Amino acid sequence: MKSAVKKLFILLVLPALIGQLQSATNNTGNSPAFIMIDLCTNGLGDSVGNFDQPRMEPDVFDIGLDIDADGTIDRWLSQESATWFGGGNSDAIFPDAFRRIYFFQLDEYVGRQAKIRFVDKSEIYYMAINAVRVCGADGVIVGNAIKNGFFEAENGLDGWNVIESSLDDVNKLIVSNGTPGSDEEYVNYSGRLLSTMTDPLSLDFTEQAVVESDAFTIPQVTSFIFGNMSGGVSEFVNIPEALFSDNQSGVYIDLGTMDSDPDGAFDPANDIALRGQWGGAPGAGRNDFFFRIHQYLRTRGQTRSGRGF
Ligand SMILES: [Ca+2]
Ligand SMILES: [Ca+2]
Ligand SMILES: [Ca+2]
Ligand SMILES: [Ca+2]
Hints:
By secondary structure, this protein is mainly beta. The protein folds into 2 domains: 3-25 and 227-308, no CATH class; 35-217, no CATH class. It has 1 helix and 16 strands. Strands 2, 3, 5, 7, 10 and 11 form a 6-stranded antiparallel β-sheet that branches. Strands 4-1-6-9-8 form a 5-stranded antiparallel β-sheet, with no helix packed on it. The protein is globular, with a radius of gyration of 19 Å. The two termini are 16 Å apart. 42% of the residues are buried. One calcium ion (CA) binds next to strand 2.
């Protein structure tokens, strides 16, 4: 076994074994749990390095987590101490402007019900969300606990409830992606997003909406892989040519089965791909170490061999 393969074998298999033993990994005794949000907004925070003037504000312009789904928000994204709000604003929605934002450290709520709430009561900010991934689920190998958490459902707001809104038609909140290379190219790996700027080319930030998910149960993580990456790390699962991608490179975990080794080829039904992130230009990686390049690959927690590319 080559050392690199052995290393990944350990990464994949050892956490799986630990998971099966239900070993305590946090002070709470629960396994880790977290939520990843792919967000594009002009209300994240002030310029790079400025920590003093966060633009997000609870119940005005923010993202909330209602533990126990009882109507009371228990965690606001703007108050998450482990997430940096010092930069990443964009007035325009385009693939490279998305940032991956986290609710970390939700282990104390594992097994409890929750709802996630997007609040835009602002006339000067908008937010566009391409995906909400509970525990980093890819929705293919590992199911997402939030119904329609990627906003890709045919029937638009399925799984989401508009609590209040300034819009005449709340269905406008779901925006379809356009042709790669055009002004309507908003995301690089999916077809739809939720946006409180319902015409993304308008630069009209006055629209307002409060949107909440159906209740879901916060699952425990049985295993995951964490890494820092740069470059076009998601290209082969991008929409063809999205973000100038040649679709020729990517990162995935090549999983074996219980009775066969990894086969050296990407199989969308069996292997785990890194989705949804453009890591930035390779040369910029060291100077660009913020939202975009730390990644979770959620694995199934089963005892299998694996290798990565
Ligand atoms: Ca609550
Ligand atoms: Ca707004
Ligand atoms: Ca989406
Ligand atoms: Ca494979």
